[in-house]
Design a protein that fits this description.
- The structure is a single chain.
- The chain has 124 residues and is mostly beta strands.
- It has one domain (6-89, 96-123): Hypothetical Protein Tm1070, Chain: A, CATH 2.60.290.
- The protein is built from no helices and 8 strands.
- It is globular, with a radius of gyration of 15 Å.
- The two termini are 20 Å apart.
- The relative contact order is 0.36.
Length: 124
């Protein structure tokens, strides 16, 4: 199968809501990078998180197996550090093979949930 996508991706907008109006894991406020690897080789990805008032965090190391998808929640990142909630950030991904990345945010701070999604900016 053909490997689709790019090796470098940026998501300029990021924000982890500091609280949720739901306790169920699927409804907790979160952001995710949905990563698709259509190729025959595993994708080894380094992720860097940028902030407006401090040095970047990372690299975080992510593996997406060949011909698989991964919905990586930014809220779940712990090493080398957790991303602070209520803080604006941006993210930059570098992969050793082409992948496709989509960005999604679920904001459940109100009982009327908000879901936002967009394809990240891909470059080589």
């Amino acid at each position: 199968m053909k490997a689709l996508g790019k090796r470098a991706w940026a998501i300029a907008e990021g924000y982890l809501p500091p609280y949720s109006n739901a306790d169920a894991p699927d409804l907790v406020s979160h952001e995710a990078a949905c990563i698709l690897n259509t190729g025959d080789d595993d994708a080894h990805i380094e992720l860097h998180i940028f902030f407006k008032d401090r040095a970047p965090a990372g690299p975080y190391h992510i593996i997406v197996p060949a011909m698989r998808t991964l919905h990586m929640r930014f809220n779940d990142l712990r090493e080398p550090e957790a991303i602070p909630v209520g803080t604006e950030y941006a993210s930059y991904f570098e992969s050793d093979v082409p992948v496709v990345i989509q960005h999604t945010r679920l904001d459940s701070r109100q009982s009327e949930l908000a879901l936002v999604t967009t394809v990240a900016f891909g470059s080589d």
